[in-house]
Amino acid sequence: MPSIFFTRESFVLAFPLLAVCSIYAFFKFIPLEIGIPIVGISTLLFQARAKLIASRSTDEHIDQTIVRDLVSGEDALVAQQEAKEEKKQRKLDQRKMERLKAERRKAANNKRETADDDDDGEMMAKFAKGSRKTK
Predict the structure, then answer these.
(1) How confident is the model at residue 79 (pLDDT cuts 50, 70, 90)?
(2) How far is CA 25 from the centre of its chain?
(3) How far, in Å, CA of 68 to CA of 79, rounded?
(4) Distance (Å, rounded) from C-alpha 88 to C-alpha 83?
(5) Mean pLDDT throughout 4-24?
(6) Which residue has the higher pLDDT, 64 or 53?
(7) Using CA atoms, how far apart are residues 31 and 38, in angstroms rounded to an integer?
(8) Residue 73 · residue 65 · CB < 8 Å
C-alpha cells in the first residue's frame, strides 16, 4: 500500500532541503583536507565515465556505419547483377516472342495461300459448270 507521506511530489519538494542537509553533514563530520579531494575525485570519475560512455556509443555508431557501408556495397553489386540478369531475361523473352510472331505470320501466310488455292479450284469448278438456271 503506497504511503501518503512519501510520494514523488513530496520528494521533489523536499529534495533541496535534503541536499543542503547532506552537504552540511558531509563537510561538518569530514575535514576539508579529506572532503574536498573526495568531491573532486568523484567529480572527475563521473566526467570520465560520461566521456567513456559517449565514446563507446560513437564507436558503435562508427562500427554500424562501416558495416552499413560494406553491406550497401555488396548489396549494390548484387542489385547490379540482378539487373543484368533481368535485362538478359527480358531480351530472351523478347526474342522468343518475336520468333513466335514470325512463326504465326508464316503459318498464317501458308494458310492464306492454301485457302487461295482452294478458292481458285472452286471458282474453276463453277466456271466449268456454268451458270445454269433451273426452271
Answers:
(1) confident
(2) 58
(3) 16
(4) 9
(5) 90
(6) 53
(7) 11
(8) no
d(CA 135, CA 132): 9
With CA atoms as reference, report the closest residue to 61 among 69, 75, 72, 76. 69
Where do we find the cell 561538518? 28
Grid cell of 40 as nine digits: 573532486
Distance CA 106, CA 112 (A): 10
pTM of the entire predicted model: 0.34
How far the first Cα of the chain sits from its last, in Å, is 122
State how far Cα 76 lies from the chain centre: 13
Question: What residue has cell string 568531491?
Answer: 39
The average pLDDT across 37-64 equals 85
Residue 19's alpha-carbon distances to 8, 25, 40, 50, 88, in angstroms, are 16, 10, 18, 23, 76
Dmax (CA) for the chain in angstroms is: 148
CB 8 within 8 A of CB 16: no
